[in-house]
Amino acid sequence: MNDRSEFLANAGTDTQLCHLGHDPASFHGFVNPPVVKASTVLFPDVATMESHGQKYIYGTRGTPTTDALCQAMDALEGSAGTILVPSGLAAITVPFLSVLSAGDHALVVDSVYAPCRYFCDTMMSRLGVEFEYYDPEIGEGIERLIRPNTRLVHTEAPGSNTFEMQDIRLIAEIAHRHGCVVTMDNTWATPLYFRPLDFGVDISIHAATKYPSGHADILMGTVSANQAHWPKLKDANWALGMCGAPEDSYQILRGLRSMGLRLAHHEKSALTVAKWLESRPDVSRVLHPGLPSFPGHDLWKRDFKGASGVFSMVFGGHDPQMAKARAKAFLDALELFGLGYSWGGYESLAVLVNLSDRKIRKAPADGQVIRLQIGLENVEDLMADLERGFAAAAAI
Description:
The protein is an alpha/beta fold. It has 13 helices and 12 strands.
């Protein structure tokens, strides 16, 4: 097993994805790990039960199936340990609860995933934690916002819906000088295109619902921590009773096997569509870090290995009412693009973005933001569908 692990550590990404998380020799040679459903686990005697002196003690503390996924994520993230939780939002809430206490101050990027903001402004605020939102492009200026009681700096790059880039290494270095824990929502890039812990992040967060699943049928979150923060994260997870289901874990592990190939297709198609949209006179801007015209492109190019299939465009003009009317007509005319939340599956999606919760980085003034998830369909068909939308918008 050690020889195999060393070999995989030096293998290519797709090879790793095909083999991480399970050694067939550990279970009768079967290629895939078993789906072990469990609540009660029996002990051979009282002494073992009292000391928890066996690998598995109860279903919430892990099974061979959930362990297989955790081991795969640790290998991809370079982490000391990973927990599985029922959703991407839960993957944010558990580390926040593990770090923050009443009287603490936390800094959260203003381009954050909207349900994270709601959690901070409601439940965490009721628990006595103060949250302050900062500009995603603040860079070294974040030091001015850190107080003696600041305990957490939360990052997300690219930012939700508007895709602002952050200098993660710089922010982490500054935060650590003041004793802050740094968390990052890295769902957009996955560990294949960006490894947060390599850039100084303490806890890496993913909605495995998205690209690791890849098929729009599983809800799950993963949280991976470095050695310093793993014990506290694990303890908080146990205290909250959060756990990923074995069957869902199996499906996510199955999705990982093809994630590299799918991401490459998503990236290629999304960039093709983004460049095409950028050339259209009826599109004000395209918000995609992989485009040289995007303000955060240099940061993306420096730190990231690739781009996923999600980006936005600003569309409809400066008049807010007209822009929204055109955007709705555009979306209603689409046939291949589904109108739905989430992303990362095989299917293309579109959504009208609501940025009314922003504190610092307000919504663009030159049009309505429409987010596109470019799926695995033929890109020519997707562009033809978007043409249908533009024609409907032009008729308004």
